[in-house]
Amino acid sequence: MAKHIFPEGFLWGTATSSHQIEGGFSEGGRGESIWDRLAATPGRIADGSDASVACDHYHRWREDVGLLKWLGVGAYRFSIAWPRIVPDGRTVNDEGLDFYDALVDALLEAGIRPFVTLYHWDLPQILQDRGGWGARETAEAFVEYTAAVTRRLGDRVPYWATHNEPWCIATLGHEDGEHAPGHRNPAEALRVAHHLLLSHGWAAAVVRENSPDAEVGIVLNLVPVWPASQEEADREAARRFDGFFNRWYLDPLFRGRYPEDAVADRVRRGHLEGSDLPFLERGDLEAIAAPLDFLGVNYYSRVVVKADEAGEPVGHPVAPEEELTDMRWEVFPQGLYDLLIRLKREYGPTRMYITENGAAYADGPDAEGRIADVRRIEYLRAHLTMAQRAIDDGVPLRGYFAWSLLDNFEWAHGYSKRFGLYWVDYETQQRIPKDSAFWYRDVVAANAVDTGLQMP
Ligand code: IFM
Asked: Domains plus CATH for the chain?
């Protein structure tokens, strides 16, 4: 079989997030989060569930570190639950810090480097009550929270990501209303995006003070955007989608400005009164554009768009049913290569990590208890092949994190989508390695992925 060998020192990992796996809602002094509140609202989560128990990682974290050790990964990406650290929005809760402190020590003891995300969507509800990310004060509160976390863990954590996927927080949470806090207000969504970026810049400086040897970055969900046809209207729709989805975040972070065409687009749609961004204050863009040690890239699929009658970009899925995952996302590995090459060419990040990549498929245990998740293996194999090709072509890609270690609470979909390398039986909390876990373990051990093709 042809092998794609990764560079020495390539960081292999898996990823999770606090809200999706921890449970233990009322323990350790944890406060309410905006996702607890959303899930308590009937009709907001597809299967009517919530994350109050999830994978019970709050109690089973030692076992989960054991799973990571068995996989042989060199790193584990997880997030800190802000409502455990600052439950009332003001006072630091030592018990919350103790939990992560012990986890970090156990990981290091197992030879696994902690890759910590500070914000993966679980805002303390009390801060939402004071305006949430729409308020500049929340950016200030994020800095204080970051200071508390990094003062405690900064001596041992080598990788810090400030935010996970600000597009999802701003757009899904404040424009589409699908995610917490469930607002539908495009003007607010733009303020939210700005405050997230700003808080990233401010917090990154604090991380550098408290964790001087660590790498600091941010994690974006990015998509290659394809026009549905070569018609001018569709190409224009694709450009606009790219502006609102990718460049709205990449440009401020790497170029210190919002993309003019995308701003004009928002003005035209009535989401901004003029191109003077009302939320922008002196010094903000400089803070946002402070150099990053890494860019975290979450890649799952591409998007194909066409122009509707009003010229607005609308999704135009083209893939046949069998090329869709359970999220109805097209399996499109080439997009990962294209995206990495584009990032290198247009933004030149010092280094990148694929901080999430994976697929939701429901495959469960057969009569013998085996989980033959062949489609997940093929998905991961194809994407890793593209990642390795990008490295060969000069992309400074330094690591890869499979999403996810465990099946978990998939936000508005509840438990109905399974992304894990491990199957979770939510009744018993048993974790069962899927075939993909065995396969990934071999990849990590070999530092290589095979193409799956017998070469002559
Ligand atoms: O589960 C999510 C994760 O929280 C953020 N990135 C995408 C994943 C799959 O939808």
From this structure: 3-454 (3.20.20.80)
